[in-house]
């Protein structure tokens, strides 16, 4: 007696069924189409890489959220927690051969060992786009343009989501200006990153505990809560270069047709410590879900990982939150993809003639499913329904004797006979 | 000082660069197109699953070629060595909701820890198609039809490769007929599987060591070396059901238009022990490479893994050997994919007008790369070449003053001015 098989995937991991594939196909096509039409080149890196590579990116011991193990030669390996470190490795091996600046993209799986919650798994897939070798903010503008194109492909516009933009460099400059010295910036950024989720009173106490004066805290809060560009200019000084870069991004966004998606929001930090300039995060307008995508400029990463100074910026867009947003707006697909036609036959003597018919249809590019064994008409049409076939072609002795096959339009119920052997591309009514 | 970054992926693992992506895109499109047009439904399962699942499939301790590890909750996990076990798990959770018989396909990565050799890696991707719930040999015929469609999409025909077909059941029946009892079949199959690679004298000695008489060995060799269907019929008896199934497969292949690809070859065994009926393997005609794809009927697997009796057959098609064959016939792509157009500009004042032009072009569906910063004409056209752009549009002050942009056909060298703001879908000359 076989022990019962557990049909669930591992905790926190996902199967994609033929029903899931309907949305997934749309999502993959959107990533592919948008990346291609804005000139990005595709790459792919392995999901397994050396632990040391990811440590080098993090600049410290990795958290215990990483899936790590040793192979049989005692190599210390990891399932990649993100694509960026492997992208840096790949890029360093290729850079001379690529156009410069280089625009590259990938879609791949990442792993993290953490408690799974709604819509948050132990693995997820991420679309990554990056531009290497361009210091101008036009690179950020191009990255965001491409992300907006993905969202358009999926049917979303500025009523559905907004991109909040900020600048780490601007915030750092402001902190220095109000007298908060460098060594406290990292801790402060971590606090600011929590702003939306915690009580303002608690946040201010924590800032005071870092040694900020009441006046410093008030001035910082004023900046964080200002979403108007001109007012931010007043606060930081309009000659401030990081402020001017933000202004430039907004002006480029206008030229590229997506200005309406952007909001200035100085409280956007992004968790990852490696961002150095402009950062951004997109959220659904209702704020029902976590961030849809996020990214920014990370000019110091290449130098830390490789010793070479290469300005870079990029964006990561996971497959989880977008699915939730899509479901909220359009509903999640309820069934798998259909076919143009399904073919059945009445008895075994008709199996081969039916196959010949199917072969011709498929060569014409018609997506056709085929009943591999004899079906009575009733069972066949039930199956044609279940297979979501637009047309159901059934070969019975009477029609076969006349060199014909009956074709039923499954939507209208209309049925016509068609010559069994002479088909052209438009033979389906 | 940063320690030098090793730009190579792990031993036996592959990066796919933008150049590799040219072939990969073609291959993925061929799998997708063929599977879809013959009515298969797509699924995807995780690359990480429980070790026990793979053990259950193998029916024994797994070899030490498996990547296994324990997660932080001490679960015994494995990087999947093949897709089939996870497919069985997925199918058991879905079967009522799918059409029956179910035709499903996937493309995914598999891992094995072994010494990497030319074209054989520690990971590879595999296209898997399977049909569950059909005992008729029409299922095998449909599987092979779909594989032939993939090869056609890639530009291969019967001059390039052949599919060798055999039947494990037929061979078992023949062994019984010549007096070789069941308990020796497994060991014999393992020997026969080596036939092409070893010396016939050695093979016969090994068979004798298993207790076969000289006459049994001679009769077995006669069968293994017979590639003619009628002669095989004479050897096994034409009323033999497994022989009739092979005949049926050839006749279905004729109806489905791929008879010319098939060869009868009783020495085809397939390494995996779970096949029960017809088995097949495709090789390039020159026999330069290992098998392109292979598969067969595995009616006992579901019952062993799940306790349910579900007839099934399937095929696996890796991404390694096909790349070698493609390279031998067409050459491996030498560079990455180009774009329709690339856009540059003479000075910073033209950056925004150029962006507006680009945005319009991209909305029209024109694949466009954009120079993110100012380029002088010489550098720009060099980059346009490197980016394999069909057209290079350059905005200079003189043209801008007239509301125009210069567009150069990079193939003919012809250059024309075009209105900067009025574009239609066919604006590229």
What can you see in these coordinates?
The first copy, chain A, has helices spanning about 20-35, 50-60, 85-95, 140-155, 170-175, 185-195, 200-210, 215-225, 230-235, 240-255, 300-305, 320-330, 350-365, 375-385, 395-400; strands spanning about 40, 50, 70, 75-80, 100-110, 125-130, 160-165, 260-265, 280-285, 295, 310-320, 340-345, 370, 390-395, 405-410, 415-420. The first copy, chain A, is α+β, with helices and mostly antiparallel strands and about 425 residues long. Chain A has an 8-stranded mixed β-sheet with strand order 1-5-6-11-10-9-7-8. In chain A, strands 13-12-14-15-16 form a 5-stranded mixed β-sheet, with helices on both faces. A 3-stranded antiparallel β-sheet of chain A has the order 2-4-3. Helices cover about 35% and strands about 20% of the residues of chain A. Chain A is elongated. The first copy, chain A, folds into 2 domains: about 20-330, Bira Bifunctional Protein, Domain 2 (BirA Bifunctional Protein, domain 2); about 340-420, Anticodon-binding domain (Rossmann fold, 3-Layer(aba) Sandwich). The model of chain A has no long low-confidence stretch (mean pLDDT about 95). Chain A starts with 19 loop residues before the first helix and ends in a 10-residue tail after the last strand. The first copy, chain A, is built from 15 helices and 16 strands.
């Amino acid at each position: 007696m076989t022990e019962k098989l557990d049909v669930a995937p591992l905790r926190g991991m996902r199967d994609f069924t033929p029903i899931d594939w309907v949305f997934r196909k749309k999502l993959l096509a959107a990533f592919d189409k948008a990346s291609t039409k804005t000139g990005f080149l595709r790459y792919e890196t392995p999901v397994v890489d050396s632990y040391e590579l990811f440590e080098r990116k993090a600049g410290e011991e990795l958290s215990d959220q990483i899936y790590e193990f040793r192979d049989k030669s005692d190599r210390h390996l990891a399932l990649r927690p993100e694509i960026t470190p492997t992208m840096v490795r790949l890029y360093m091996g290729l850079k001379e051969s690529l156009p410069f600046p280089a625009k590259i993209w990938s879609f791949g799986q990442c792993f993290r060992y953490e408690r799974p919650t709604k819509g948050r798994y132990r693995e997820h897939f991420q679309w990554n786009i990056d531009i290497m070798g361009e210091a101008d903010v036009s690179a950020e503008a191009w990255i965001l343009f491409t992300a907006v194109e993905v969202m358009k492909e999926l049917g979303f516009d500025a009523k559905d989501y907004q991109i909040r933009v900020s600048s780490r460099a601007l915030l750092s400059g402001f902190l220095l200006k109000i007298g908060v010295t460098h060594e406290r910036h990292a801790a402060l950024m971590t606090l600011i990153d929590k702003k939306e989720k915690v009580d303002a009173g608690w946040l201010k106490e924590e800032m005071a505990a870092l040694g900020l004066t009441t006046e410093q805290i008030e001035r910082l809060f004023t900046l964080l809560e200002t979403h108007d560009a001109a007012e931010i200019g007043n606060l930081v000084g309009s000659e401030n270069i990081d402020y001017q870069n933000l202004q430039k991004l907004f002006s480029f966004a206008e030229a590229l047709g997506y200005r309406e998606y952007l909001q200035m929001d100085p409280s956007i930090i992004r968790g990852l410590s490696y961002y150095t300039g402009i950062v951004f995060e997109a959220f659904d307008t209702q704020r029902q879900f976590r961030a849809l995508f996020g990214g920014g400029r990370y000019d110091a990463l290449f130098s830390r990982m490789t010793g070479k100074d290469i300005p870079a910026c990029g964006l990561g867009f996971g497959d989880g939150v977008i699915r939730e947003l899509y479901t909220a707006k359009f509903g999640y697909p309820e069934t798998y993809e259909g076919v143009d036609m399904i073919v059945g036959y009445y008895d075994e003597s008709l199996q081969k003639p039916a196959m010949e018919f199917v072969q011709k249809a498929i060569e014409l590019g018609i997506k056709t499913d085929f009943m591999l064994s004899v079906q009575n008409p009733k069972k066949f049409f039930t199956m044609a329904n279940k297979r979501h076939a637009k047309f159901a072609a059934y070969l019975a002795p009477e029609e076969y004797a006349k060199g014909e096959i009956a074709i039923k339009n499954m939507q209208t119920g209309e049925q016509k006979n068609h010559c069994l052997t002479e088909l052209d591309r438009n033979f389906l009514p």
